Amino acid sequence: MCATHSLYKENPMLKFLLALSMGVFCVSPLQAGDITPVTKSCQPGAKQAQCERWVTDIKKAVDLAYKGDHGAQVTVAFCLSTGCHGAVAIDKVASCSWHLVIANSGSTTVLDSSNTRNTCRPMTAAEKDEARALASDLVQKIYKRPLVKTDQM
After folding, report:
1. Vertex 148, ends 143 and 153: CA angle to 5°?
2. Confidence at residue 23, expressed as pLDDT on a 0 to 100 scale
3. What angle do CA 120, 109, 60 make, to 5 degrees?
4. pLDDT in tens, 111-144
């Protein structure tokens, strides 16, 4: 993770230049073509055990999703869209990307198509472009072929 220096906090112009340079030099996992859900620390309480189970399950699902497992891909897309009971940070662009991967898997169901529409259509054009680019990288990585465009967005 990139760190800031107190000097940059005191000078607005330096702060702006730092923010601009961070966009160039600090590449997030999403920009690198990897979409791994960010798990959260489960809060103590009545739903803690359920949240902790989802944290464990999503880690296993990600491994299987990258191996082409349809059910695991659905789980990853779902968790990125809903947060899986507080276990995962919601990321609609990443969720849409995984839905596009599913649409390119050859194992798509009617429910998968509906989930793709519901997740991807409300996004902005820029978010859709980002989701397509990420999905393209994933399809190439998982299935060793280019992304087939879908009209579901």
Report:
1. 120
2. 35
3. 75
4. 999 999 999 999 999 999 999 999 999 999 999 9
Buried b (16+ CB within 10 A) or exposed e, 78-90: bbbbebbbbbbee
CA distances from 152 to 2, 82, 105, 116 (A): 37, 20, 15, 7
Which long-range CB contacts under 8 A does 17-24 form with residues at least 24 apart? none
pLDDT, tens digit, 9 for 90 and up, residues 53-80:
999 999 999 999 999 999 999 999 999 9
Q: Are 118 and 152 in contact, with CB atoms under 8 Å apart?
A: no
SS3 sequence of the chain: CCCCCHHHHHCHHHHHHHHHHHHHHCCCCCCCCCCCCCECCCCCCCCHHHHHHHHHHHHHHHHHHCCCCHHHHHHHHHHHHHCCCCCECCCHHHHHHHHHHHHCCCCCCHHHHHHHHHHHCCCCHHHHHHHHHHHHHHHHHHHCCCCCCCCCC
